[in-house]
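Exam revision sheet. Question 4 asks you to relate a sequence to its structure. Input first:
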Amino acid sequence: MRRKIPVWFLVLVSVMLVRATPVQTAAPHYGVLLRADTTTLATTTTTTATTTTETDFQLTLHLDLPSNTCTPTVAPDKNGWVPASQCDALYLYYPSFKAAIAAAVIFGILTMVHFVQTTIYQAGFTWVVLMGVSWETVGYGVRALSARNQQNDTDATVTQMLILLAPLWVNAFDYMVLARMIHFFVPERRIGIFKPSLLAKIFVLLDFGSFIVQMIGGFMATGTSAQQMNGIHIYMGGIGIQQFFIVCFLVLAVQFHRLMLQLDRAGQLVGEKQNWRRLLYALYGSLLAITVRIIYRLIEFSAGYSASNPIPYHEWYMYVFDAIPMALAIILWNVVPPGSVLRGTDAKMPSSGIGKFLCCNGCSCCGGCCCRTCRKRNKGKKDMQRLPDDDVFGDDVPLRVYDPSSYRDIGYTPRR
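Answer key, structure tokens:
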């Protein structure tokens, strides 16, 4: 015998099915809701003649965006420190305020010494190493501030970027020093097919490309957890490229060393040109210190942040294998300042064109007003005026017989 199923039973089953449907959280989905009270999904209207069911449906869009799932369970201390296991931890260790202050003071002293030596020897090209040591000073100074406010993302990002990128300035300075040494000491002023200006241009531009790659990786490494590993891999690629360029550069430095030994044995080096050894040895020492620092960073990032890799969880690794090598690389140029050896007319190396290119093309918004070369080129043109196209002179008539042109400067007096 077939029994008639009540309408209210069908409505109740429909409500249970709708409430049991799983909700998507990764993408928007459509739901079915009534226009009336949200707790009532159907309304039944009974008339005197027949019994019917009227259900008003309203199509609404639910956008369930991923919310911040970070729920700290440990309150930060007075310096903002929380254990590394917490989601809001910016450091995997407790950063030392005193160590950061000490590093900032040391690099600050080196900055002042380099500035004084640059002024005394009038070596303008040393601004490159000044940039490197200044970035180290500011980087560790901001790190000291971050040690007192460990929940500040901006301080942590700034200190990490400056410390990671500052060695590239010192590396570029090493390239420039060897190029000037070739121009100063070698009579032919070239090594193989490389002239000093071309050598400096090539390696500085390669160093700049490595700078861009490392900067992109450094910024990504400070992002979300999903971006950190990609950023670390990009940064590792950047410092790997930097080390490859250093090895290629060392090949040229060794070739220069052999050539200088030949010139020394031949007695062609006299006066100040006999001081090539201390400059070259300082160059070797600086590149070696940078290489130690690169190897440390490669080991640190290649092993990841697992428990088997103790480097990211201890701060002293960074000071021993990053801060100290970079301080040594900079101190070597304080002990042997290039400006004290590369002096005289032979020290004036022709421009590589990098500064002119960057200045003239980079200052297009201001018409090259900040570029000395562009200012000199435009200085003689500001008082010149263009003659009209219809101002035609005869072939046999001297120019002086014509009346002064209305386009000529007012202060100009022609000679008759």
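Marking note for examiners. Residues 293 and 320 are 9 Å apart (CA to CA).
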